[in-house]
Amino acid sequence: SARVPKSQILTLPELRANPFQHRICRVFSTSDDGDDSMSFEDFLDMLSVFSDSATSDIKSHYAFRIFDFDDDGTLDRKDLEKLVNCLTGQGEESRLSNAEMEQLIQNILEESDIDKDGTINLSEFQHVVSRSPDFARYRVLQL
To answer: Which part of the chain is the EF-hand domain (predicted)?
Structure first.
């Protein structure tokens, strides 16, 4: 029943530098308190997904959940904007202009939104990932 607090988990060097550190804790935590603390089993699940031996399907499933900031089962424009901001940094010097952000999101949707509903579902995300052999090496899913 012991849980490791989120603040302690975030001290891991691999998570400290990860732009998705808070989302990773949220996705793997089973805490009923909403504090993103982890049980030992939660922690092992996280390490298992980040291990080199995890399959691309497992990695893509959890990457999708990490990128789905509002936890609604789809990546919409707001999720994609948050994703881009996490990857490019929040500073003024690295922030994309509104026009650049809109163009990038439009390009992502054109490439990924197979059913043209304006969002990316898990199946569409996994389809895109399957065409990217380097996906498993991306830092989002590496510890």
So the answer is: 55-90, 100-135
